[in-house]
Amino acid sequence: MIEKAYRIYPLKNELVETMTDDDRKDPIISLSKLHLTLGTKASKVNILNGIDLTITKGETVSILGPSGSGKTSLMLVIAGLEHASGGTIMVAGQFLENLSEDDLAIFRRDLIGIVFQSFHLVPTMSALENVAVPLEFAGLEDAFERAQQELTAVGLESRAAHYPSELSGGEQQRVALARALAPRPKILLADEPTGNLDSETGRRIVDLMFERAAERDTTLLLITHDESLADRCSRILQLRDGIIAFDSAPAKRVAE
Questions:
Q1: In the predicted structure, residue 133 carries a pLDDT above the cut 70
Q2: In the prediction, which pLDDT does 127 show?
Q3: What homologous superfamily does CATH list for 6-247?
Q4: Which of 77, 105, 147, 201 is disulfide-compatible with 131, CB 3.0–4.6 A?
């Protein structure tokens, strides 16, 4: 395992990449004995129960499982949005348990893109402004130029000045995808990205998501209930009761 594939300098808001050509074989996500327990002493609920998982750079991984199996919780832990109760979490060279809240915010800004089922666009901002938000947070002088390029890449160059209420569901999700990819993250997390869309619009969004991730060699983790969508990934995980019950990677088996 490479302990420092990337180094983050919070004061300069600068990400320095030190990954070599051989690093593709090394894990970009490595979880060891990951536990997540929520609630108070009287009502503790075990969400994740000792998960071990390694994902390499550029993999596309789908996560299947019934509601309550821990899929979204696992994604939130990987994104540093939920604090694990135990275990080791290494993501893009950063050991998340060692990072402060400020460092975690910088980690997400520079390394993680997230697409949610409900879009989560800022209603008072145009499509262009929504996409530019993470770029402005990063202090980029060409934030709006890059945001326009991302909108063009998802086919929305003519809708840049429109507000979310003026866009269809599919258009809003394309804006959300452009926003997630604008900082050029190493990892893209997608939580039921087609859940609020009709089947044809959802198919186009998924095609676009895979295409854009492949262009940038971005590692993709996709949470879905749709097995046909999961089959498009190079690897399939199935969660059950907070454990990985199945992993399609070689030498993995269904948990007993």
A1: yes
A2: 97
A3: P-loop containing nucleotide triphosphate hydrolases (3.40.50.300)
A4: 147
